Structure formats: structure tokens, C-alpha cells
Amino acid sequence: MRRVHLEEDTGKLTHVLRDEHHDQANHDLAIHNLQSQTVGGQTETESYSLVDLNRAGVPLLEIVSEPDLHTPEEVRAYGMTLRSLLRYLGVNSGELQKGVLRIEPNVSVRPAGSLELGTRTEIKNLNSFRALERSVAYEIQRHSELRRQGKPVIQETRGWDDVHEVTVPQRSKEEADDYRYFPEPDLPPLVVENEWIEQVRRSLPELPMARSHRFQRQYGLKAYDAEVMTAERLVADFFEEVIASAPEVSPKTLANWVSGEYFSLLNQGGMGVEHSPVTAQALASLVRMVAAGEINQNTGKAVLAEMFKTGKSPEEIVAEGGLRQISDAGLIAGLVQKVLAENPEQVAAYLNGKASLGRWLFGQVARLAGGKANPHVIQQELERQLAEQRNK
């Protein structure tokens, strides 16, 4: 990191050109919010600029990094890591689409082996990590192509056209000296004492990387799973609540449920963990039921979906739907016996080496049980009875 400094937010310009590259609905919306200019008795609304001063003067903190990143993937990873850190600290919501966090990469290329950076361009006001990665990739390609053609790269700021996935010029970019910085005489020097810095450091929460490493040590998670579980502070808190509520279930199994079915249903509902109708304790209860064999995996997924819809507990949903899994060994033995007796040709073919029929016979028993029989018990009993017939 090079520096962190405070700025004042500026006014925002929105340039509208009504042509084949612009959406009619957006054009009409802008027209609705614009007082038409009359020139020579004619209303001119084909091309115009809007000035938005609503955020002008609002303090903003800018974090400036060194030119240490070399690929679009590294840039995206850096941006996502920084966003996660800010959210953990509670200093920023990280909502790029709302403009509370903006990322403006500077791109330059240089010949292989050279240490001298080329002319840079800055891409302004990106509001998604997808746009960040793709715009940087586009600029790298554009700079490289210009250099191959022997053409200069113009130092400028550029905007990202998300529809056509290209950058477009906005204005020439000044060097630092062109800003004509000068000391502000009315601002006294700010002296920050080491004791206060240490006090703030001690008050910091456990940060994402440290928490990820702890999850790997404490819960035995792989690096990828630990990173997924700690990318957001609320998710990490939720996950640890699930673990505390289901200590008998492996953390890996719990992580799979959180990052799999639970995240999927959150995404479908367009909500975050903080707005989920399913608490950590409720999810833990559901996974405990699956782990104990009270319901199978597929039933568990269906129950979780119902929990999101109704807010009911997994126990209520299972009881009301009669979904509890059958694990009675005697009952399942009778079902297996019935299936084998009704399908002698398939049994004979299996015993003669056609192993794939084992899965078919398993499916017949499961279907006869209405999908409620414990698959582990079915498999054990099926293997036992087939072995008996082989040994006759």
C-alpha cells in the first residue's frame, strides 16, 4: 500500500447520447428528470449531460496501492480481499452497486524484462468485481496492441461500457504536479501517539486471513472451505454458531451445507445471512437429523427449502410430512426379499457378473419404500441377501 488519504466527493456527470448504444428506457428516464432546454423554439433532448451534486463535499477515504499486481485475476482477488477487510472492521458495507465502495484501477504495460512502467490509464467508478476483472483485461490487451502497432498510449481516465465490454475515453489524466497541491494553513498537524495506535490495534476484531487460518487449524477445514466460510464476517459468525449447535457433526459436513444448499437458497431469495428466516440453530438441527439417519440427504434439502418458505423448524416439517426415514432393519429386509423374489432374471444376471444391476435392485427397494428407507441399511441388507443367494 502506498498511502491512505481523505478527499471530498465531487459532483457526478452523466452523459447521455441517444444512439444505437443506449437503451431507450434509460434515455426516457433521464429525459423525465431533465428540464428540457429550448433553443430557437426547438426542444433539444437528443444529447446532454446531467450534473448530480448530491454527494459533493462528502468525505471519502482513498486507499492507493503500489503497482504490484500483474493479472486481472490478482486485481480482482485484491479488491475482494480489501472489501472483506473493510466489512469485517465495520467501516464500510462494501456495496459497490450503491457507490459506497468504488474501485478505480490504473493499468500500464511494459516489455518483458523491463522495470520501467509504461503510460498508465485509469478506469473510473467500477461497481462490480466482474467489471473490475474484465475492464483490466481489456485495457491490458488495448495497451499491448497499441505498443505492437508503435502507437502511443494516452494518459487518460476511461469509463467501462458493461454492455459492449470496452473502455471508453473520458478525459485526459493529469500528473500529480498538475493538481497544484499546497499546504492548508488552517489545518494543524495531526500527531498520532503510539499508545493510541496500539489501543486501536488491540480492539480490532479477528480479521479474515487470521480467521481462515484458525478455521483450518481448529475445525480441520481445507484452505478453500475456510476462505469461503470467512469471506464475510456474518457468514463466519453464522458458521461458528452452527458448529456450536451441532458439535457431533463434522465441521466439513456443516461447511458443505452452509456453502451449498444454504447459500443457494439465500441467493434465490436475494438476501444475506442477516435476513435469513433459517437460524444457525435451525440449520444445525436439520443437519443433525440427516447425520443421524432420521432423514436422507435429498429429504434434508427439500426440508431446508421448506424452512426458508415457512420459517418452521425441521422437526415440524418432517413430522407434518411424514418424512422420517425408515431404518427398521426387519422392515427393510422384507422389502429387499420382495424385490429379489419379483425380479429373478435380474438377480441371476447380477450373480453372473453384471454388477450394474446392483444399483437397479437398490433403486427398486428404495422406490418400494417410497424413498423413505435409509440407503445405508438398504445397501447392507441387499448385499447380505444377494451373498446368501450366491452361496446357495
SSE layout:
Layout: E1 3-8, E2 12-17, H1 24-32, E3 37-39, E4 42-44, E5 47-52, E6 59-64, H2 72-89, E7 106-107, E8 121-123, H3 129-148, E9 156-161, E10 166-172, H4 194-203, H5 208-219, H6 223-230, H7 233-245, H8 251-269, H9 280-291, H10 297-310, H11 314-321, H12 329-342, H13 344-351, H14 357-368, H15 375-390
Parallel strand pairs: 8-9
Antiparallel strand pairs: 1-6, 2-5, 3-4, 7-8, 9-10
Helix pairs in contact: 2-3, 5-6, 7-9, 9-10, 12-14, 12-15, 14-15
Commentary on this structure:
This protein is an alpha+beta fold. The protein is built from 15 helices and ten strands. The chain folds into four domains: 50 residues, no CATH class; 114 residues, no CATH class; 114 residues, no CATH class; 62 residues, Arc Repressor Mutant, subunit A. Strand 3 and strand 4 form a beta hairpin. It is elongated and about 95 Å long.
Strand content bin: 5-15%
Total helical segments: 15
The mean pLDDT is 88
Low-confidence stretches: 20-45
Largest sheet data: 4 strands, mixed
What is the C-alpha radius of gyration, as a whole number of Å? 31 Å
Approximately how much helix is present in the residues? 40-55%
Morphology: elongated
Strands of the biggest beta sheet: in what spatial order? Answer: 7-8-9-10
Order of helices and strands: EEHEEEEHEEHEEHHHHHHHHHHHH
Please report the total strand number as a whole number. 10
